[in-house]
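Lecture notes, unit on protein representations.

Consider one protein chain, 1157 amino acids long.
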Amino acid sequence: ENIILNKWNPFNCDADSLFQDVILWMPAMTISHLYEVEAGNHYLYECAKQNKWLQFLVFAQIFQIPKEQVLKAASRFSNSCISYHIFHSLHRKSSLLYDVAYETKSVSSLKSQKKDMRRSLYTRIGVIKDAPVESKKNTEPDDDKISVTSEETSTSSDTDLRSYVLKDLFSQLLLAHGTDSPSDCLLHTCYEIQNPILAALAASYPEAPIEACFFMWLYTSLSHNETIQKQLETFFPELRIPNINTDDLENLIVIAIHHHKILTLWQGVHIFLPSTPLPSLMGFLRSFIVYKRFDSSIEAFQNKLWDYPKNTEKSSVLHSLFWIENISVTILKEVVISCSSNYERQLLLRHFSHTRLEKSFSKEVMVPQFIKVYHMRQCLGDVAQDIDVKNLFLPEHDTQYKATCWEAITKLLQHHSYEDAQLFSEHAKLPQDQMLMLQINQETDEARVSPSWQDLHIRIHFWQNLILKLQVLSLHTAVDFLEVQCEISDMHGEKYFLIKSIIGMIKDNLIQGSTDGTIYNLDSLNKKMWWFCIKAEVNNELLPEIFDVKAVFELNIQEIFFSKKVQPNPCCIEDEKEKEALGSIIGRFLSKSDIHSAFQLALTFGYDSLDLKIIKLCFEVAKGEINIDSVDRSMPDCSNDIASTRVIQSLILWVNKKSTDLTPLQKSIIQCIKDLSLKCIIAVKICYRILVHYIVSLILKEDFINVAQEKNAFSILKKVLVLKLNDELVIAKSFIVVRDLSDKEVAEFLSEEIWNSLKILRSYDLVKIPEDESAFSEQVIYDPLRANEGFQLIVKLCQNPSVLGYSLMSIYSTESAELNYKSSDADFTVLVDLCICAHECFTAACNMDGISQILHNAQTLVTLLEEAEKFSTMVHLLTGLDRYSEMMYVFDILKSHDKFSILFEKKMDNMPNLRLALLDYLKKYPPSENDNYFYTLANRFGMHREKAEILEMSVQKLLSQLCKKNSALDSDMKDELENALQILSDAAKSYCMADCLHQAQNCTRLAQLVALQIYFVPDGVWIIGLDETSVARFITDHNKFSQAFIVAEEYGNHHLWSQALLHNVVIRGDRDYLLEFQAHFGLPTSLISDVVKRYKKLPTKNENTTRNMKLLLSMCSNIKVKYSLAHEMGFADVLSELLMGEASSYLQDLIANNSIK
């Protein structure tokens, strides 16, 4: 309705606006009637607002809006006069729809009334003064099977007679009552005048037969329709009322149902059989079929039927439970058959299925299999809409039933609905072999006409899938079908595959112990198969995928080469192309390691193959049946299998190193087999496999034949790994390569063995086990306590270590599901080790997704360990994963539980990354909080420089904070400064222990500055964190040289001492400052010269400054400079003193030479 409102224009004034509105609102109003929801108010309110009374009334009448809703909307008219007229005209009407199903109609036709209904309405509301008198016409009603009105609306061809009878009904009753059998009289009259009311009156007599009354009432009710009337006259040509029985009534009910007269039957059972379960049944059908209320329920009928007494006091057979159940079954079946649409029929059948309707009836009643029909119709869907449902209710042995079912299956197969066809045949209980063969023939016929059928790949792929279905059928059926297809085929490659499939089926049948395959000649079939194979190779019709991959270690070697059952019976092949094709086929079998097929083909056609000879020779050498000196090795090397050769070369090198365990003869045999392997053109991998098996048999001290024929490769691999030999990786890797074991298979095997090893570890105390002894039994492959090899050895067995990692994580996920804080230490330890092993795999493969998953699982595991207070295991997980930056939360947990000292135990010495992680972690906190940890870390791991750096950094941070609040120099600040002084002292000591003398000196300088600041706290002087101006002012103006020197040393400012001397010595006359300065720095000539320059710039000079300047000048050690400076300043007394002193001669010479003035 909201969607319609967005599209509707209420102000449209076009001539056809009303028609457009009706079309627009039709969906919403239809849905509202279907679900009995109020709708249309927006339209009515808008019409009332605009005083559009005509649109208002037409809309309400067309959509049959209830009276209450219309009156409510009518109150909203702006014009009160219109509102009054509508109220006045409608207040006595119960509905705007003239419904004949619930109102008594006059003799005049309903169709005529409906035709002039609008005119009559206009008359009542005052638009037209006089409504015309409705003419009495005999009109035929519309035969709409769905409409309620059309079903019950009809007129008689003899209107006058019916009107007369209705008017004189009382006289008719008196007339019948005067006869010997009033009910018979009324029934005859009912039949003559076709008025059903008389049959209802006849039923009121006690002696009246109910079945006859019901029959006549229904007969006369249906006879008003010409179509039904003709069918009734045909079905009941000579109707005799005394002879009417229940069979006639049942047939008439079936006719009524076929013509969709559900409401008529509903009225009839309410009139004649009100106390039976039939009114409930017809009520359900009326709601479901007529009013389309598909959510209606049949449970009321089921309850009435279950509660209905088996033995009733009424004598009529219609009240017996047996008849009621039978007629109910008939009605239900016929209603299903006569549904107007497949959708409606499917909904009805589904309702019967869900309510288990079939179990509501007695065992004596033949109830149709509604559930079966429902499932069969569900399988059909929209494919076979024209299938007659009536035939599906027939017995399963009925010919028409089978024909209908096979027709439906054929249509399903034509639409490629194979699964639906299979389900349909199962529900229909048809022979499955016949059904499957029909499907196979359909698929085969369609495949043969497809354009892609000319591609041999398509054909082989098709037959591979089809053979899986043929295995369900009997052997004879499958073989006959494939033989026919082989004869039809026009490709030898296809023929070869079909015959090969037939042979495989026969062999499987014989292995299972059946005798069906004994009637076939396998030798003849084999020759036929190989002949087709050769022909296919000649025509380039052989595909790689039609060769079976069959490993040599799965073969019975004795059967291949030495069985008496296999005797050469060569067929004659003269064509050179066929001989070349034969050699090529044998080579293909050998490349796929199918030595049995290659040998059989060579025997069948007498083909001499070098590779087969070498393979046989290698077996004989490995078994020790021939002397290796008699073996001819002069043939040239032909192998180019570089990958396999590298593995074998590594194995041979290992064998040569193991000289103490292998005899010279054994080494010679190994070298012989290796040399023979290189002579092969194609079968080098097979020979390498023999070689590896022989070496493994020597290592395991087992028989070569047992090792070569062992089908379970992992049992051999486990034995090799359990030995824990030096460089056992070479043997295990070689075995994996020659056995063609995939990474997934190897990973699953290794993960299970690792898990078993860790489970055995639970029962051992690892602390008491010496490192040079194994903690495990001889049946495990992984020993984490072994010092000279570790988990990396096992990881290298997989080409992609991630596969092993994911396999281990799969075990971890399964085992950790039951883990909780109450679990034992052993359970936690095993899972932690499993997690560490998986992490090693992902790290080796650089798999970041796997590492992320490990870290996530580790976080969950740490939570459980914290709850269980198993901190040692937690540290084991932390150090095992070696992911300290990602697992920094473990440090927090240990610290919060006061277990941080576990990280400093002796066994942590061989973990270099741990000390750096601890250092980074401790940097986050002030030294005061971690003094003990710092000292322990430094002492335990010798990390003095790192400790000193952290201490120095913390002091810098502390002093920076103090600089921000230097305006308040109080006792608290003094305490903080003393703390900083102590930290700096420790840092300097740590630097000294680490031989970092320069850094120690820097700490010492800063410590002196801090100590001086502590001294200045009472005076309120701040000397930490000064800018350049403040530093210069302090150095120049401060009267204590030692203190000024500390500041200058820390800030690196030594270029202001001339100014400081001028201020403190020359101007102030502080001789102690001069002596202290001279003791520390001395008085360089350049410094005195700089002071003189600054002195000369003084604006005022007095006697004291002159005397002090002379004193400073007197300390100059350079006579020449002293004389020059005195001369510049005009100190005559100083010049006289110099000329009269010990250096007078020197000065006289300088003056004479004009060096000085």
